[in-house]
Amino acid sequence: MRTHRRTFMLHSIGAAALAISGRNVWAAPPQLQESDPAAQALGYKTDAAHVDRAKYPHFSDNQRCTNCQFFQGKPTDASALCALFGAKQVSGTGWCNAYQARA
């Protein structure tokens, strides 16, 4: 019985510490916005259909974040982290100028 009480107290203290700190460790990372300076530097679009083909002539219709080597999710994920944008998620249907096809 003493072990269960000790475990409960340790878990309660940990939960209270998280609540007091205001951090939500279970929250999903924020979505990358097209207005973000890093996104603008790489021409990121949340929907590849809106890529400026005159500005990025090497863009091809089959290029999407989901099939880029920097996309850290599964090809079926709607969004996931991108190795280029740190702790922000990119749209699976998005595109940026650093696109590299998955091997």
Automatic annotation (TrEMBL):
The keyword Signal applies. InterPro entries: High_potential_FeS_prot, HIPIP_sf. Gene3D superfamilies: High potential iron-sulphur protein. Residues 1-27 form the signal peptide. Keywords: 4Fe-4S, Electron transport, Iron, Iron-sulfur, Metal-binding, Signal, Transport. The keyword Iron applies. Residues 26-103 form the High potential iron-sulfur proteins family profile domain. Belongs to the high-potential iron-sulfur protein (HiPIP) family. Specific class of high-redox-potential 4Fe-4S ferredoxins. Functions in anaerobic electron transport in most purple and in some other photosynthetic bacteria and in at least one genus (Paracoccus) of halophilic, denitrifying bacteria. Homodimer. This is High-potential iron-sulfur protein. It comes from Paraburkholderia aspalathi.
